[in-house]
Write a structure and sequence with these properties.
Beta-Lactamase, alpha+beta, two-stranded antiparallel ribbon, Arc Repressor Mutant, subunit A, 7-stranded antiparallel beta sheet, elongated, 2 domains
Length: 273
């Protein structure tokens, strides 16, 4: 089954229930049986797809490992030039995974809800398919650091877990491409299936980061106490000393604090022998 363009430059939004509202923006031909002339469709492959998804997300892996599998799976079953996965972090969508390497923007690029097509999809929790000239869509957001800004086709699908927004999956193609209904349903289905896994991995990452921050705080407090005792300075002066050393040596404050604590332990050990 093929999605055909509406009168609005090939762009359209599709709700999750495929109800009558969808027909206001996208038209497609309904048939009683699968369209085996569609080269993307292979009889019986849906069972294999579900099995592959289940086997890949069965293990409890870190967030980036989960997202890497999501990107790998999507780009295997739906050929595309770009695949981005955004994950909701508080009130912003953060780019967490990409088919092509983008070390400068992954984990740094953030979108507000409602910003760009991606933000619109997150806010309305409805897929959007743009067949060509995606940058002309009034919802499109340009990022000069991304070559994908000039890609023709754009498919954006929300990732949900128990009705809660978890993130957004984006597929892009350099050339015009009218996404079939099956492609849109497949990405949506994957979003439903991995939504809970992504959310769990995200929460585990947050817990790990919180534990690391608490541990760093303990080490920093201990290091400040050592400097106050040895140098006869205030707590604020001790903190500024650590901060200054961190900048000069291009090390984290935690690393500087650990060095101070280790040096103190070595001195005490030597003095006790």
């Amino acid at each position: 089954m093929r999605v055909t363009r509406s009168a609005h430059r090939g762009s359209g939004s599709l709700d999750q229930g495929w109800d009558h509202n969808m027909r206001t923006t996208v038209r497609y031909r309904d048939v009683a049986t699968p369209d085996h002339s569609d080269p993307e469709f292979e009889p019986g492959d849906d069972i294999g797809i579900l099995h592959e998804i289940g086997s890949r997300i069965a293990a409890a892996d870190p967030l980036h490992a989960v997202l890497a599998r999501v990107v790998q799976f999507i780009t295997t079953v739906i050929p595309c030039d770009s695949c981005f996965v955004y994950v909701l972090d508080e009130d912003a969508l953060v780019l967490r995974a990409s088919k092509t390497p983008h070390p400068d923007v992954v984990d740094r690029l953030k979108l507000r809800l409602g910003q760009g097509i991606t933000g619109w999809v997150a806010e309305h929790r409805q897929p959007v398919a743009v067949g060509e000239h995606a940058w002309e869509d009034p919802r499109f957001q340009t990022f000069n650091e991304l070559p994908e800004d000039r890609y023709e086709a754009f498919l954006s699908v929300p990732v949900l877990s128990r009705g809660k927004l978890v993130g957004v999956i984006n597929l892009q193609d350099r050339r015009p491409h009218q996404h079939s209904r099956r492609e849109i349903q497949l990405v949506s289905m994957l979003g439903f299936l991995v939504g809970a896994e992504i959310e769990m991995a995200r929460l585990e990452m947050e817990n790990t980061q919180l534990s690391e921050r608490l541990e760093a705080r303990k080490v920093l407090d201990r290091a400040k106490g050592i400097l106050q005792r040895d140098l006869g300075i205030t707590e604020e002066e001790a903190y500024l000393t650590i901060q200054r050393q961190s900048r000069q040596r291009r090390k984290s404050k935690k690393e500087i604090a650990e060095a101070i604590v280790l040096g103190d332990e070595l001195r005490r050990g030597k003095g006790g022998t």
